[in-house]
Amino acid sequence: MDKVKLDRARQILEHESKAILNIPIDNSLIKSVEIILGCKGKVVLSGMGKAGLIARKIAATLSSTGTPSMYLHPGEAQHGDLGALRYGDVLIILSNSGKTREALELVSLSRELIPEGISIIVITSNTDSPLTKVADVTLSIGNATEACFLGMAPTTSTTCMLAVGDVLSLLVMEEKKFTKSDFAKRHHGGYLGEKSKD
């Protein structure tokens, strides 16, 4: 029984690892980095459910590495939080299906609030979807079939989204020539706070 579980654990890790290695690396990534580097406002990340949790983490990584960012919940945006958006912001939306209703409504409402001046990047596995049709740039996570035996629980897709977010964050960080000293100014607590001051 234990061997069966261990074999299954290894299978899951191999499945997700292969999915990460199969994420398309193309000019859409370069264009996304350029859009973020040219951002005159802040970077706003959004997504529903598990994709939303990944969006929060990407926003935190960007903020701690020199790119002011925040998370905007698509549902709460319809109850006043849309007001956080400003001219010059970059909106990054995560949706595996590319069809998330709340995400589509967020795009529509943000364009209504600020007709021009917000760039939209979509991270998805479905490059022929309603969200990609309204995006300035689409970042594909590839064919990220879920590791879940039901094929339902967001697992591989969210792992790939996080990997794409890390790539974006680190490429932007490197282009900005972000230093250890810069990191220390933003990260005062815990082990990393101490390590950054060494």
Can you walk me through this structure?
- The structure is a single chain.
- This protein has 198 residues and is an alpha/beta fold.
- The chain has a single domain (26-193), classed as Glucose-6-phosphate isomerase like protein, domain 1 (Rossmann fold).
- It contains nine helices and five strands.
- It has helices at residues 2-21, 27-37, 49-64, 74-77, 101-113, 130-133, 156-175, 180-186, 190-196, and strands at residues 43-47, 69-71, 90-94, 119-124, 137-140.
- It has a five-stranded parallel beta sheet with strand order 2-1-3-4-5, with helices on both faces.
- Strand 1, helix 3 (49-64) and strand 2 (69-71) form a beta-alpha-beta unit.
- It is globular and about 55 Å long.
- The mean pLDDT is 95.
How would you characterize the largest beta sheet? 5 strands, parallel
Might you state the CATH topology name? Answer: Rossmann fold
Question: What is the average of the pLDDT values?
Answer: 95
Q: Helix segment count?
A: 9
The beta-strand count equals 5
CATH superfamily: Glucose-6-phosphate isomerase like protein, domain 1
Written as H for each helix and E for each strand, in order along the chain, the element string is HHEHEHEHEHEHHH
Write down the CATH class.
Alpha Beta
N-end to C-end Cα span: 47 Å
Instruction: Count up the domains.
Output: 1
General form: globular
Helix share bin? 40-55%
Which ranges are low-confidence, i.e. pLDDT below 50, for 5 or more consecutive residues? none
